[in-house]
Design a protein that fits this description.
The complex is a heterodimer.
Chain A (H helix, E strand, L loop, with lengths): L12 H21 L3 H10 L5 H25 L5 H63 L10 H8 L6 E4 L4 E4 H18 L3 H12 L3 H25 L5 H21 L6 H28 L8 H47 L4
Antiparallel strand pairs in A: 1-2
Helix pairs in contact in A: 1-2, 1-8, 1-9, 1-11, 2-3, 3-8, 3-9, 4-6, 4-8, 4-10, 5-7, 6-7, 6-8, 7-8, 10-11
Chain B lengths: L10 H20 L1 H8 L7 H24 L13
Helix pairs in contact in B: 1-3
Classes of the chains: A mainly alpha, B mainly alpha.
Chain lengths: 360, 83
């Protein structure tokens, strides 16, 4: 419980507009790639003075209702594998509980600065490794000229699909194959742990569905919304039991993100599948620099390095904030641009079809 | 996008849900101190933020969905079939 009551920040009009705006862009990205709003929302809240743990908890409490709305929307487009989402989501739940336990211990031992440092370092490590790989893969697809062709399962995924462990095999629509749940359980657990730690489980969940299980990008990103709902609900309950959710922040972000997630979900019906990877990779790689800049600040607060001057701290915080905003806007720009291009292409096709049938 | 001009747009439903959503937000912000102190109690009070989240998502989700439909922003006509 700690000193939660004193941790609530004051909300003014600018803060509300900021949360709404970040929520909208975060929702837009989430609707498109299945996750991702959190990686800007959590630090976004932290930049307002919200303690790291409360930022994670409040983000999670906006995430599950948002994911529910997004999953229902994308289900209508035939992109969701509910069974895979629930199977991964349940094991992710265990990961969330475990991750939340670690977070609580860190906060109790090292305080807010320790908790913030842990979240930031986890951000940097995950974003660098997974984000770098996703971006590289998207670049390879783009250069190969295969962007229009149907995605195929990679070598690892083919091997995973070929392993037959009697009594554990389950058929998943997204994979069009039977896979042992002994593979899905650790993937779900890792997704959940990441969600509880940095609130962006999707950055493990979506790539693992694509590269380890062999799901197409569109299906993986849509199914991630089911996982996000399942673990977000459980995680929110867990945090709320300790009074850590700031419902005002969660609902204001939800206000913006529900506008965004509907738009992002619609956008997926217009784009080539590899665009999911492009958006995910680009944002992850840029945001890691944003969080990386904050690491020395928290190290200094914990007195693990020499105390940084006030000017240096301010410069690092401002730069971190600016880079995060850039990542946000760039992600939104790519989504909207891809959507616009897809829409134009569809209009041209319709016009050509109409001409062909002598309707014009 | 590619709005279907023959389909009736849900303007009335959007307005009703929009107003309810606005009222919910106004109530939350007007009573934020009381809400914060209650929700921070934890324990069984943990159900309150969950219930609030579901209610807001239903009302506001319905409004935002209709909002884009009314603006003519809809999914591509030819749905992407994945696999």
């Amino acid at each position: 419980m700690h000193d939660i009551a004193t941790s609530f920040i004051n909300l003014d009009a600018i803060t509300i507009l900021y949360l709404f705006g970040v929520g909208f862009v975060g929702g837009l990205v989430s609707g498109f790639i299945g996750s991702g709003g959190a990686f800007v929302l959590t630090p976004g809240m932290m930049s307002l003075g919200v303690p790291g743990l409360m930022a994670v908890a409040s983000n999670m409490c906006h995430k599950f209702p948002k994911a529910l709305v997004g999953a229902m929307k994308r289900f209508k487009y035939g992109q969701v594998d509910v069974k895979l989402g629930i199977v991964l989501g349940v094991s992710a739940e265990a990961g969330v509980l475990y991750g939340a336990g670690i977070q609580e211990k860190i906060k109790a031992t090292f305080g807010d600065a320790g908790s913030n440092l842990y979240v930031s370092v986890a951000f940097v490590v995950i974003l660098a490794t997974v984000g770098g790989f996703v971006l590289y893969d998207a670049w390879k697809t783009y250069k190969s000229g295969n962007a229009n062709t149907e995605e195929k399962a990679g070598k690892l995924a083919k091997w995973v699909q070929s392993v037959n462990i009697p009594g554990t095999m389950v058929y998943f629509k997204a994979l069009n194959a039977r896979v042992s749940i002994l593979f899905t359980i650790p993937l779900g657990f890792a997704t959940g742990m990441m969600a509880a730690t940095i609130a962006v489980g999707g950055f493990v969940g979506v790539p693992s569905m694509i590269y380890v299980l062999g799901a197409p990008s569109l299906m993986a990103s849509a199914t991630e919304l089911v996982i996000a709902f399942v673990m977000g609900l459980g995680g929110s309950l867990k945090y709320a039991m300790h009074g850590m959710v700031d419902i005002r922040l969660a609902m204001i972000i939800l206000a913006g993100s529900l506008f965004g997630i509907q738009l992002g979900a619609i956008g997926t019906t217009y784009v080539k599948p590899f665009m999911i990877k492009v958006v995910m990779g680009v944002i992850m790689v840029i945001v890691l620099f944003s969080r990386g800049l904050m690491v020395p600040v928290y190290l200094s607060q914990l007195q693990l390095i020499d105390t940084l001057g006030e000017g240096t701290v301010k410069l690092l915080k401002t730069s971190s904030f600016a880079i995060m905003i850039f990542a946000l806007l760039l992600g939104a720009f790519i989504v909207l641009r891809a959507m616009w291009q897809g829409r134009q292409a569809e209009r041209l096709q319709q016009a050509a079809g109409a001409l062909e049938h002598g309707e014009v | 996008m590619a709005a279907n001009s023959t389909k009736k747009k849900p303007v009335g439903k959007m307005l009703v849900m929009g107003l309810i959503s606005l009222a919910l937000y106004a109530y939350l912000l007007a009573n934020q101190d009381q809400v914060n102190s209650t929700f921070a109690k934890g324990g069984w009070y943990a159900l309150l933020p969950i219930i609030v989240a579901f209610v807001f998502s239903y009302v506001h989700g319905s409004f935002t969905g209709d909002f884009w439909t009314v603006l003519g922003v809809e999914a591509a006509r030819k749905k992407k079939e994945v696999k």
